[in-house]
Write a structure and sequence with these properties.
Elements: H1 12-24, H2 27-34, H3 38-52, E1 57-59, E2 64-66, H4 68-96, E3 99-104, H5 106-113, H6 117-123, E4 128-133, E5 146-151, E6 159-171, E7 189-192, H7 196-199, H8 207-214, E8 225-227, H9 230-238, E9 243-247, H10 252-257, E10 268-277, H11 285-298, E11 302-305
Parallel strand pairs: 3-4, 3-5, 7-8, 7-9
Antiparallel strand pairs: 1-2, 5-10, 6-9, 6-10, 6-11
Protein name: LysR substrate-binding domain-containing protein
Domain HTH lysR-type: 10-67
Keywords: DNA-binding, Transcription, Transcription regulation
């Protein structure tokens, strides 16, 4: 009984025998498949016919054929057993291989997620964490159980939980720290190239915008060293090659340790980081594990489904 309803079904064993016999159109071959005798198959079929009060097979000397009733029952039962088999296989696969797949940008995986993987193993020793570092948008059902995405937070049809907003500010090695913004006229500026899509965006966190907000003039905002990969820009700044306008999220560890310093308080607003996943995956163990772990690391409580 489930939900107050009693299912009135014949024994599953008899239905399974019928499906095998109907699929093979042979009691003998069905018996071989089920590892029972042909007599047992014939007996089960006859009992099923008596229970249903309908004839399911026309019996010939060497072969059997489905009746109209048998033809109506067979595809429904076949498809149901197929789904039953698939569901059992999925459960076994999840139990045998507990893999949680989390995707995010290359930079975020490298700078924020990779250093935290030990905490995942401590919290979930029976699980394997698979991090997909990719700047492409992946299918959040086929290719990943959840994602940490950087953007404006508009992900239609997905559950979205806000983690935090990013900010950009000048950072550098301590020995290169300027005493005032005017000193930037003589510094090597390091840039992350946002690409054509955002190069002319007035809201993009780039040197041009920061210098304007700081009121600094006579500085070539495009001069210096430019990188198309954020990690490379961070590495150049850590190596003391110049002053970079970088994501404070990506250099949080370097700032905390003193490897880098933030010489000015002024910072620029940027996109935000969200945990997103498909509502159809929300109750799956892998998605729940990832959600609990990510929220424990980065916090946040704004959960909503964007439609």
């Amino acid at each position: 009984m489930y939900g107050g309803i009693m299912r009135k079904l014949p024994p599953l064993g008899a239905l399974r025998v019928f499906e095998a016999a109907a699929r093979r159109l042979s009691f003998k071959h069905a018996a071989e498949e089920l590892n029972v005798s042909a007599t047992a198959v014939s007996h089960q079929i006859r009992q099923l016919e008596e229970m249903l009060n309908v004839k399911l097979f026309e019996r010939g000397t060497r072969q059997v054929h489905l009746t109209a009733a048998g033809k109506a029952l067979f595809p429904v039962l076949r498809d149901g057993l197929d789904r039953f088999e698939q569901a059992i296989a999925d459960v076994r696969r999840q139990q045998a291989s507990k893999v949680a797949r989390l995707t995010s940008t290359v930079a975020f995986v490298a700078k924020r997620l990779a250093p935290l993987t030990g905490s995942f193993r401590e919290a979930y020793p029976d699980w394997t964490l698979r991090l997909d570092a990719s700047n492409r948008t992946v299918d959040l059902e086929a290719d990943a159980d959840a994602a940490i995405r950087l953007g404006g937070g508009n992900y239609p049809g997905l559950v979205t939980e806000t983690l935090f907003e990013d900010r950009f500010a000048p950072v550098c090695a301590p020995r290169l720290a300027p005493t005032s913004a005017v000193d930037l006229r003589h510094a090597t500026l390091i840039h992350f190239d946002w690409g054509a899509a955002r190069r002319d965006d007035p809201r993009a966190p780039v040197w041009r915008q920061w210098l304007a907000r700081a009121g600094v003039e006579n500085v070539d905002a495009s001069a210096g060293i430019s990188f198309t990969d954020e990690i490379h820009a961070v590495q150049a700044v850590v190596a003391g090659q110049g002053i970079g306008l970088l994501s404070l999220t990506l250099v949080a560890e370097e700032l905390a340790s003193g490897i880098l310093v933030q010489p000015f308080l002024l910072s620029l607003e940027a996109d935000r980081y969200d945990l997103v996943y498909s509502p159809r995956m929300a109750d799956r163990p892998a998605t729940r594990v990832l959600r609990d772990w990510v929220m424990a690391q980065f916090g946040g409580s704004d959960c909503r489904l964007v439609s």
